[in-house]
Design brief:
Helices cover 34% and strands 22% of the residues. It has 283 residues and is of the alpha/beta class.
């Protein structure tokens, strides 16, 4: 594992996701201009990377290259934050729809490292499917297009899939692994300090890690992530609350809190340019 420089943290904001709606938090950015305005506010607060999900005009998750392109263009008109598209898409999208965002040429894209089962809601009993073949197809397309994969790992078993990509030479150093804790899916680990420490123990060499934790665990586990030398992800995709019973006013509010905590720990948020160098983007 590679620790970030002691005085730095790379902050990703995951603003929208696929499972949250304005009825759950009216401040959720869904449309391209809303997403870009919010990304700019997050950039101003200290976010270096913006993880992106797209919605159609009705607010439903879409894989449309055109919508992703529109979001990229709106963001680029405002700032140079690193753009990381989601190939996770949403429960309504097929493999072909999920991969489409890559053609909008983000600098990074998510790569989910195994299959999980949905256990609640409308899609309970269906898989969030990421077979080895799917993963290899996504990553091959990313390589062709010069996109760095953000490998999302939800359990120890998924690290075997990371190893598979390393052994086949399909990912480049430094490897970037997002440890996602507390997804309410079958096959995902709980968001606890023990699980976080244990996942870190099993990381391959030459890996920069990021900590994502769902719900109320977002604040304590991302704080731990910074202390342990990792990057962190905050935002409404994973957590719609600022604190118990109080909805987040904006994604920027969540980023601003992380930056305050980072500074108390003598860390500065990396700028997008600094983050590009650390992550080896554009090499
Ligand atoms: N909602 C996250 C916990 C993706 O976009 O590829 C999972 C996620 C998947 O971020
Ligand atoms: Zn996502």
């Amino acid at each position: 594992m590679i620790k970030l420089p002691e005085d730095k943290v790379i902050i990703t904001v995951a603003q929208t996701g696929a499972l949250v709606s304005k009825s759950m938090n009216p401040n959720l950015p869904e449309q391209p201009v809303e997403i870009a305005d919010s990304a700019y506010a997050c950039y101003q607060e200290g976010a270096a990377i913006c993880h992106i999900h797209a919605r159609d005009k009705e607010g439903k998750t879409t894989g449309s290259k055109e919508v992703f392109q529109q979001i990229h263009d709106e963001i680029r008109a405002r700032c140079n934050i690193i753009i990381q598209d989601s190939t996770g898409g949403g429960p309504n999208l097929t493999f072909e729809q999920r991969i489409e965002c890559l053609y909008a040429k983000p600098e990074m894209a998510s790569l989910n490292m195994g299959t999980l089962m949905r256990v609640s809601g409308q899609y309970a009993g269906t898989p969030f499917s990421n077979t080895r073949e799917d993963i290899e197809t996504y990553v091959t397309r990313m390589r062709e297009l010069g996109i760095k994969p953000e490998m999302e790992v939800y359990s120890h078993a998924m690290l075997r899939e990371v190893k598979n990509l390393i052994q086949k030479g399909l990912v480049e150093k430094p490897y970037y692994i997002n440890l996602v804790l507390g997804m309410a899916y079958q096959g995902a680990v709980e968001a606890t300090p023990k699980y976080l420490n244990s996942l870190i123990d099993f990381l391959p060499e030459d890996t920069i890690f990021n900590v994502t934790a769902v719900g109320a665990a977002q604040l304590p586990l991302t704080t731990m992530g910074m202390i342990l030398g990792g990057c962190i992800r905050v935002g409404m995709e994973d957590n719609i609350y600022y604190r118990k019973g109080e909805l987040a006013k904006s994604n920027a509010q969540l980023v601003a809190r992380s930056v305050r905590i980072a500074r108390e720990l003598n860390k500065e948020p990396a700028t997008p340019e600094e983050a590009r160098k650390i992550l080896g983007l554009g090499d």
